[in-house]
Amino acid sequence: GLVRGESVIDTGAPITxxxxxxxxxxxxxxxxxxxxxxxxxxxxxRNPIHAEPPTFAEQSTAAEVLETGIxxxxxxxxxxxxxxxxxxxxxxxxxxxxxxxxxxxxAKAHGGFSVFTGVGERTREGNDLYREMKETGVINLEGDxxxxxxxxxxxxxxxxxxxxxxxxxxxxxxxxxxxxxxxLLFIDNIFRFTQAGSxxxxxxxx
Length: 206
Known about the structure:
Layout: E1 16-19, E2 27-28, E3 45-48, E4 65-66, H1 71-76, E5 79-80, H2 95-110, E6 113-119, H3 123-136, E7 147-152, H4 158-178, E8 183-188, H5 190-203
Parallel strand pairs: 2-7, 6-7, 6-8
Antiparallel strand pairs: 1-3, 4-5
């Protein structure tokens, strides 16, 4: 983070992050730097994390159900394609297992990708998730992975935690808009995202 009196340089450009299939199976931070110690991510495209949203005319108005392949969900609480879903549960009840199942099923049934964005995660939580995804084949270091991971961890400044969700969103939007893929965007968790925004507001004296 910055401290008072430190010299800074205005680049005149927004934060840009790598996008595309090269990000699958990799872990990056808020500014698109790899943090998985597997070398640089060489992509053809870099997109700014601040972009104009699609207009209403560009958005689909059709009400479609996204088949998750998890029978109890599809029967009792079906997910709307393009909608938003909140998962609430205590520690150790299976939220991560459920997320991994969703990622697997979407990849197999629809050929789609997923982007997992960890906001304010503990380092241990991120390590556990990465290890579990490798064990279940969601991340394949030798072949095709199904998910890109973006982390703004608990020890990072609030500015990074408040913007890391936009980094994950930018990667997901590229798959949606440029490759026409079904994409699941996970943000874990939304409370720490809003908390980071509150911290930034306090630092700005608002």
